[in-house]
Amino acid sequence: MKTNIIALCGKGGVGKTSISALITRILAENPGKKVLAIDADPSVGLASALGFHAGKTVDDIRNGLIADITGGMSGDKGEIVSRLDYEMFSALEEKGNIAFLAIGRPETEGCYCQVNNILRDIISAIAENFDHVVIDGEAGVEQINRRVMERVTHLVLVSDESKKGLTVAGTLLSVAENAVDYEMAGLILNRTRNVSDGAVIPEGIELLGALPEDDIIREADIGGTSMLHIPECPALQALRTCFAHMRISL
Ligand SMILES: Nc1ncnc2c1ncn2[C@@H]1O[C@H](COP(=O)(O)OP(=O)(O)OP(=O)(O)O)[C@@H](O)[C@H]1O
Ligand SMILES: [Mg+2]
Questions:
Q1: Which atom of ligand 1 is nearest to the CA of 191?
Q2: Choosing a second label site near 117 at 20 to 30 A (CA), which of 46, 77, 125, 225?
Q3: Number of other residues whose CB lies within 10 A of the CB of residue 167
Q4: CA-to-CA distance for 202 and 143, rounded, in angstroms?
């Protein structure tokens, strides 16, 4: 089984978390598929967008281990790996065919590269048990690769119609082109109000689709309703059509 690893990147506030949650929902509508949603944003918005409660994060696990090592705990690499392996599996929250994992804060002071590498390997190993992995990333894709897992297959840039948002998307793509080995990259334009407005898409970016400004999304966020439970709505419908462009079969 080959796992699709879909990472969402883009300027702040453009809709990455909402769209990550909706992508997770659409992928999980096929009961035969398993989906892992990873929150790589320290402010853990994806948990509430999916109705999970964000317990232990990867960062908590990492800090616990580092505290034990600096407190004098000895242990060979094998023991450390099996402890981290166990803790990571217990940090996974599951609901039906969806599992959730939060990364927590980015690297703290000091370099614990070995621990970081072990954690990344464990996340990659966990990911292999899923058909799809959706990563809501605050950071650029190269940070996702460094912190979360080595490989992203689908890079989804998200932007509103603003020049600022689209410039950030263009910059992220050019960084990713040099730093990351993904299979496809494309842009989702979010919160469009009028298709004829014609936002200027940076050259070389494939447009996957446009999601309209949608009161159901906005109200769900205000009320704290999970994106798994909102009714069918225009933004959700528009997102469904993006999957063909992403070359992902549902
Ligand atoms: N298509 C849409 N229609 C209406 N509101 C939307 C839509 N997409 C996102 N929003 C709203 O925009 C706000 C920002 O969305 P969201 O939190 O998903 O963005 P983000 O890119 O994850 O932000 P951050 O960079 O802070 O993590 C939220 O209040 C959300 O409900
Ligand atoms: Mg977010």
A1: 1
A2: 46
A3: 14
A4: 22
Give distance in angstroms: CA of 16 to centre of ligand 1: 7
Q: Which residues does ligand 1 sit against, CB inside 6 Å?
A: 12-18, 41, 45, 138, 190-191, 211, 213-214, 217-218, 221, 235
Name the token pair of 242: 């993006």
Closest atom of ligand 1 relative to the 19 alpha carbon: 18
Q: Write out the residue range of the structural domain in which residue 174 sits.
A: 4-245
pLDDT band, very low/low/confident/very high, at 108 (cuts 50, 70, 90): low
Rounded Cα–Cα distance for residues 153 and 176 (Å): 12
Q: How many domains does the chain have?
A: 1
Is residue 69 a part of any domain in this protein? Answer: yes
19 C-alpha to ligand 2 centroid (Å)? 9
Instruction: Report the atom number in ligand 1 closest to the C-alpha of 221.
Output: 31
Is residue 250 included in any domain, yes or no? no
Pick from 25, 190, 218, 237 the residue to mutate for probing ligand 1's pocket: most ligand atoms within 8 Å of its CB: 218
Model's pTM, two decimal places? 0.94
Q: Using an 8 Å Cβ cutoff, are 134 and 34 in contact? A: no
Residue 206 maps to a domain: yes
Residue 34: which CATH number? 3.40.50.300
Alpha carbons 75 and 72: distance in angstroms, whole number: 10
pLDDT in tens, 110-147: 566 777 888 888 889 999 999 999 999 877 788 888 88
Name which residue sits closest to atom 6 of ligand 1, judged by CA.
Answer: 218
Overall average pLDDT of the 160-167 stretch? 94
Q: Give all strands (DSSP E) within the chain, no chain letters.
A: 4-10, 35-39, 93-95, 98-102, 132-136, 154-159, 184-192, 207-212
